[in-house]
Amino acid sequence: MKRLIIIAFWVIACFAQAQELPSIPSNGFAFPLGSKFTIKLIPTEAGYYDYSVIAFEPFQEIVDTYEKEHLFEKEGEENSIVCYFCLGTHGETEEEMDKNMKILLIFKSYSKELLSYTSEIQREEDGEYEETSNVGAFPGVLMTEMWPYMIYSIGLRNFRNFGTDPKDPVIVGVDKGNQISVKKMEKIFHQRFQYVLSHIGQLQFNDIVAKEEEWGGVDNTPDHKVSVGESYYPNPNQFIMDTYREYSYKSSLIEHSAGYHATKENGLVRVVFLEWSEPFLVAEELEDKVLETFQDHLLFLENMIVKEAGNYIDYQDKENHITRIWKTESGVTIHLEHMKNYSGIRMVIYKE
Length: 352
Fold this sequence. Notes:
Blueprint: H1 2-15, E1 28-32, E2 35-43, E3 48-58, E4 62-64, E5 80-89, H2 94-99, E6 102-109, E7 115-122, E8 130-132, E9 142-147, E10 153-161, H3 182-199, H4 205-215, E11 218-219, E12 243-250, E13 255-263, E14 268-277, H5 287-309, E15 314-317, E16 321-327, E17 332-339, E18 344-351
Parallel strand pairs: 4-5
Antiparallel strand pairs: 1-10, 2-3, 2-5, 3-10, 5-6, 6-9, 7-8, 7-10, 11-12, 12-13, 13-14, 14-18, 15-16, 16-17, 17-18
Helix pairs in contact: 3-5
């Protein structure tokens, strides 16, 4: 740990001078919050890498948590990884943006290999580093690691091909055995949608957890607190939501998660938060099929909602996304939002 602290100060000092780059290859470096940097992987032994820092500059912008593609080029130097360690947020109001502020590590790998690495964070100024989990680095895929608390610097070390180290965690969804068909995903959603609409307001947390396990969802609950922005759920009754569970479903064409925000005291689910996104890895020959699947899935969701709630009561056409809101006769609110490039869909269901 002390070695990383020394490196952190060395990095800040020498990276300010362009003539110091590229750096001497090492197994790991630490980078301060508010920086953009590019590293170049250098093979050492079979499946393992040191790396050299080939570019570094301060980066003080606060990025949109959901709009990051513009930060990266489509193609990059072979075996390089471009990284931003910065602040990010989202929301419609200043209050929402303050509430949703997070520390982000955003990066894109231009290596052809699926990579694992070790990350360590410094949570106190001049403090020691502690190891934290990560999902790895996928070829050509924009990745984001997110923390809800302050981090002063991050150390990245021990880059290796995924699976080289027997302690590497299993990445759910990489193995085709963990994937389901889009049709099965739609069938599960239909069952969930009917169940939630008929029970929301009295929906018990333990009951929906049992249902998700019955449907085959993978528990993907993060180890940090997950909140809901007021633009999705205004919470006029100021319910305390201190319990959360999230389940994921994956196919080769689309990925889906179902999150449940509940009150521990009475076990009631207050908000159901559903998302659909592109898979981490998309084969080039499937790119058009992924877009087609998203368009078809959005139409499927719209038809399901209209069947239960009729016409929408609110429509908002924003720069990057379209939002529609429905309300059923029983008082259930359904909020549906999709990105205009069809890379993401979000649905929020609740009842006051």
